[in-house]
Design goal:
By secondary structure, this protein is an alpha+beta fold. It is built from six helices and six strands. The strands form two sheets. It has a four-stranded mixed sheet with strand order 3-6-4-5, sandwiched between helices. A two-stranded antiparallel ribbon has the order 1-2. GO terms for molecular function: mRNA 3'-UTR binding; ribonucleoprotein complex binding; selenocysteine insertion sequence binding.
Length: 171
């Protein structure tokens, strides 16, 4: 068995023949690249005309703002951090659940990144951001498709590894 190697965008090597070789850093790198490009477009528009750029934002930060964009129907993609602390805050858990239901009902992709600190770093917000709504990703379609593709690949691999689709142990 000969194993082919391919250079991944983050410098690590990934095995082409082994689909289970996708990890969270690959997903995070794809999402961060996508967000950085969209943020660059938003910043460039802000430098040209701040008033117009404020009325047509590409990115919105925070759980409440994300929900507002979903309710208005302008969100095209939602990116959430996995490490949001919901143990003590029941309303925060409910907010995340509502966002998930709105995404499912409107067919909006919901991507997950490993930490809110890396999400905040990608959009240049200090110290962290829990959720980002992407309202317009024109110009970054290739990075969006790459991020969604690698997330779907990872989810499919997890479903296979966890035997989610297997009705019994002997099937």
């Amino acid at each position: 068995l000969q194993v082919k190697q391919e250079n991944a965008p983050n410098g690590s090597e990934r095995c082409i023949d082994n689909p289970f070789n996708i990890n969270a850093t690959d997903i995070d790198a794809a999402i961060v690249d996508f967000l950085k490009k969209v943020k660059h477009f938003q910043d460039r528009a802000w430098k040209e005309n701040p008033t117009k750029a404020n009325s047509k934002r590409r990115l919105v930060y925070g759980l409440r703002e994300v929900r507002k964009q979903l309710n208005s129907g302008t969100a095209q993609c939602i990116i959430m951090a996995k490490d949001i602390e919901t143990a003590d805050h029941n309303e925060l858990f409910n907010e995340i659940d509502v966002i998930g239901q709105l995404c499912a009902s409107q067919n909006v992709n919901m991507l997950w990144i490993s930490s809110k600190h890396s999400l905040g770093k990608a959009v240049k917000k200090f110290p962290f951001v829990s959720a980002v709504a992407v309202c317009d990703f024109r110009g970054a379609e290739d990075l969006y498709e790459a991020a969604v593709g690698i997330c779907e690949e990872f989810t499919a691999c997890c479903r296979i590894a966890d035997h989610v689709d297997q009705p019994s142990l002997f099937a």
